[in-house]
């Protein structure tokens, strides 16, 4: 209809993209990228810790010596050399029974999730996922027109009894969940890790219910205190799809991830990937293969662990010293994130513009729930900024929170609510973007 929209194509879009909007949070992140703003928001690894001169030389040699193949089209499943290296990487985490034939190389972990959604989800299907969960996965499931039902977590990760309850509630509603999507190790955004005992319980529950498991494991090698529990895929082979990526342990800009799938499903994933991207980048695959074959990548992971442990400790210490009373947070033993619960009455989404004005950024908790809840939470990242910068960011954030608490004490909730009347309920889709990854 003329005069009602700036988009002349609105009535031509497919149903699955209706309601997709760019949130005001994304607009604020464009400001958050300025150097004067301390960003606690993104999920970026600290790439400067890599031996960049050696990596640059390696990439130059790849182009000069193997350009005829590395700059050419490849195959949909990914090169056999890389798939063999991926199996070696997984073996370090305890997945020792993987075959290169069952590995499908993807354009980052994000495409892996998209392929699984395309393969298994019809409109109206139910996906069970931790609450909160990775915003990029929520975008994929929403694009597939699936319904996400969240399963509660605590300090030990997903609660098995809550999973059973969610399965039963889905059945009572006359529906069937297609799979459980879980990040059991150093979860994004909560930072918690599913205990070994609970991993067995969750697998037993899913097996009894005939529920597939999609295990997303980008952070499992970034443990700070001993080794992480064995992945779910190391414990059970059937019905578990293992997804991971080199974005957190090498270079997110190369966009190389993978799926380890049951053999019967592998070929369908390859066909779907070919229809989606034709083939993953041969150059990016060659770069990762050479990195894993010629450079001390295991030592590099140890370097990341030490850097991130120091930065986690700096963030936790700053929270302990500076946060207002009533604030609580998780204490991750690996990964990149801390999940903060605000004092009663504070709204992380409403507070975001004031935080940006104070030159600090975070991710409001609403982005990690399919139903738009999570206003009382925020995600903080500690991997990218130096310890002194993290402390300064917390100092600025604490000041914003103290001001909001003071306003509530004087004027009540209305003083903060009238400026941010927002629809509660299902959140509009918002592509994850690097600031939310």
From TrEMBL:
GO MF annotation: an example: transaminase activity
Region (Disordered): 417-437
SUPFAM superfamilies: PLP-dependent transferases
Cofactor(s) needed by this chain: pyridoxal 5'-phosphate
Ranges of compositional bias, category Low complexity: 426-437
Residues covered by the Aminotransferase class I/classII large domain: 52-396
InterPro entries: Aminotransferase_I/II_large, Class-I_PLP-dep_aminotransf, PyrdxlP-dep_Trfase, PyrdxlP-dep_Trfase_major, PyrdxlP-dep_Trfase_small
Keywords of this entry: Aminotransferase, Pyridoxal phosphate, Transferase
Pfam families reported in the protein's UniProt record: Aminotran_1_2 (PF00155)
Listed name of the protein: PLP-dependent aminotransferase family protein
């Amino acid at each position: 209809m003329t005069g009602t929209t700036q988009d002349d194509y609105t009535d031509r879009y497919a149903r699955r993209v209706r309601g997709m909007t760019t949130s005001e949070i994304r607009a604020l992140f464009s400001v958050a990228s300025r150097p004067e703003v301390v960003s606690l928001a993104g999920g970026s690894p600290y790439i400067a810790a890599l031996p960049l001169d050696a990596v640059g030389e390696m990439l130059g040699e790849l182009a000069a010596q193997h350009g005829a193949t590395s700059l050419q089209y490849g195959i949909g499943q990914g090169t056999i050399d890389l798939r063999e290296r991926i199996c070696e990487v997984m073996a370090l985490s305890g997945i020792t029974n993987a075959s290169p034939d069952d590995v499908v190389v993807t354009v980052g972990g994000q495409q892996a999730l998209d392929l699984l959604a395309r393969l298994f989800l019809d409109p109206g299907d139910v996906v069970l996922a931790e609450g909160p969960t990775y915003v990029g996965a929520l975008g994929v499931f929403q694009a597939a027109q699936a319904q996400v039902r969240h399963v509660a977590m605590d300090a030990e990760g997903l609660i098995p009894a809550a999973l059973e309850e969610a399965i039963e509630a889905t059945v009572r509603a006359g529906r069937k969940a297609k799979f459980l999507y879980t990040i059991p190790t150093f979860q994004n955004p909560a930072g918690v890790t599913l205990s070994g005992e609970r991993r067995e319980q969750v697998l037993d529950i899913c097996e009894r219910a005939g529920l597939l498991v999609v295990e997303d494991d980008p952070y499992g090698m970034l443990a700070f205190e001993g080794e992480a529990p064995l992945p779910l895929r190391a414990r059970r082979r059937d019905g578990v799809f293992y997804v991971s990526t080199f974005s957190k342990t090498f270079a997110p800009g190369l966009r190389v991830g993978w799926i380890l799938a049951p053999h019967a499903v592998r070929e369908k994933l390859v066909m779907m990937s070919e229809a989606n991207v034709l083939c993953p980048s041969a150059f990016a695959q060659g770069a990762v293969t050479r990195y894993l074959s010629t450079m001390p990548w295991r030592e590099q992971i140890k370097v990341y662990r030490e850097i991130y442990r120091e930065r986690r400790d700096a963030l936790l210490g700053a929270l302990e010293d500076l946060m207002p009373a009533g604030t609580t947070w998780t204490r991750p033993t690996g990964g990149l994130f801390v999940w903060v619960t605000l004092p009663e009455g504070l709204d992380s989404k409403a507070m975001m513009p004031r935080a940006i004005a104070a030159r600090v950024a975070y991710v409001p908790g609403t982005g990690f729930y399919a139903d738009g809840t999570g206003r009382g939470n925020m995600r903080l990242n500690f991997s990218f900024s130096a310890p002194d910068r993290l402390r300064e960011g917390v100092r600025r954030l604490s000041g914003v929170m103290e001001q909001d608490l003071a306003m509530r004490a004087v004027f009540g909730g209305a003083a903060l609510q009238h400026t941010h009347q927002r629809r509660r309920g299902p959140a509009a889709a918002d592509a994850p973007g690097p600031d939310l990854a």
